[in-house]
Amino acid sequence: MRLLSLLSCTAISGFALLIGEADDPGLAANGSGNVSAFWEEYKDNCFAIHTANYLTRSGWQAPTRLSVSTDAFDPEAAMNSAGNTLVVWRQNTGAYYAIYGAAAQVGDVWSTPVQLSTADSYFAEIGLDNDGHGVAVWQERIDPRNVCLATASFTPGSGWSAPTKLSDSSQVMMAPEVNTGSNGRTVAAWQIPSSQGTYFRLVIQGAYYSAGAGWSTPVTLTNVNHDSVAACVGVSSNGEALVVWEGGFGETFDQLGAATLSADGNWGAPLVISGDGVAAVHPDFAMNDSGQAVVAWKTPTGSDVAVMALIRAADGTWGTVRELAPTNGNLPEVAINSSGKAIVIWTEKGGSDARIKAATYADGNWSASVYISDAGSIASQPEVRVNTDGSATAAWQSDLNNEALIVSAQMGTDNVWGVPVVIN
């Protein structure tokens, strides 16, 4: 998850400082055991985007470098049910940082990277449907003071389209989040300043994309009298979508809100989902094809921080908020599979180290949390994906002996996590 002056639900962007250091891990998976990891790593005098594939019978394969020549950061990837993958990142052109994209069909090599944007750009997101059609959205600078959102689509056999703008110079759209359902509907949400007389508030807007019809008219989802940030998006197989965010609902602290996009394209009214009387910040959210979903967030508890979680049923009913970690929890990430099995993963700080913990939801119950990273290192930036059979893959950055590594662990169908391994 990026932690900047503007928040969104993606991984922390960082700059490794030592040769050979790796940062900003991400995972893409298809639910059938195909998993790809992506990260940025300093090699050959520049930062480059790398990827590695996990194979069920032979484990992690040797990494492949995707970007060339100049510094590249912030990979974001999506994989569909067939195992086809799209990845986008930010790369130095010499004049500005542009968004680049690459594709890999299942069992094939990666395509040559393509420059997608034509101006200084960042915060790229990518969605991919089961037919292999993808949509990328990013934040692009118009002038020194203004930014907009731009987009490009990917078609199998044809490649990437020319970029188009989602807004003009009179609008400032920031920090996009994108998700694509298996039926092809792509939903995006972002932040935009809203003038309230003598001051501005950040509000969340949403829109959806359909091939041939383009983008719908953006709709403001949140209360214009309170700041809202950190939008997360999920889309089910019938096109129903849910946007979750952190924002104000009249209290003196932030809570989590949600708004639903129906299959016929209508947005519902926002509602508070994190409970009354407590603060909720830094959410992460995932939804499966049936509309089941998991949300996790941080709740400040005096001088400490707890990790909380909530399950949504396929009929749209929200369950009861559950505390997964009463102390020292930080930046939870979530995943859910087609049967509703969910995993929440987070960093727990303690003493001189920081370790990754995980809790599993299955058959209506949460497990006790367990450590999945080794003691004695500083682990952070966790990511997780759950397969259809209930097994899972997690990855994170680990600072060990002054070297930053990308580490992964596998969870079996018995919910037992294996020994972590270095994958870069």
Summarize the structure.
By secondary structure, the protein is mainly β.
Structure, described:
0% of the residues lie in helices and 55% in strands. With 424 residues, the protein is mostly beta strands. Strands 1, 2, 3, 4 and 5 form a 5-stranded antiparallel β-sheet that branches. The protein is globular, with a radius of gyration of 20 Å.
Question: In DSSP terms, counting alpha (H) and pi (I) runs of 4 or more, how many helices?
Answer: 0
The CATH superfamily is known as Prolyl oligopeptidase, N-terminal domain
Largest sheet, in brief, is: 5 strands, antiparallel
Low-confidence stretches: 1-19
Percentage of residues in helical conformation: under 10%
Query: In what range is the share of β-strand residues?
Result: over 45%
- How many extended strands? 36
Q: What is the fold's blueprint, element by element?
A:
Blueprint: E1 22-29, E2 35-43, E3 46-55, E4 59-60, E5 64-65, E6 72-79, E7 85-92, E8 97-104, E9 114-115, E10 121-128, E11 134-143, E12 146-155, E13 159-160, E14 164-165, E15 174-180, E16 186-195, E17 200-210, E18 214-215, E19 219-220, E20 228-235, E21 241-247, E22 255-261, E23 271-272, E24 281-287, E25 293-301, E26 304-312, E27 322-325, E28 329-336, E29 342-350, E30 353-362, E31 365-366, E32 370-371, E33 378-386, E34 392-400, E35 403-411, E36 421-422
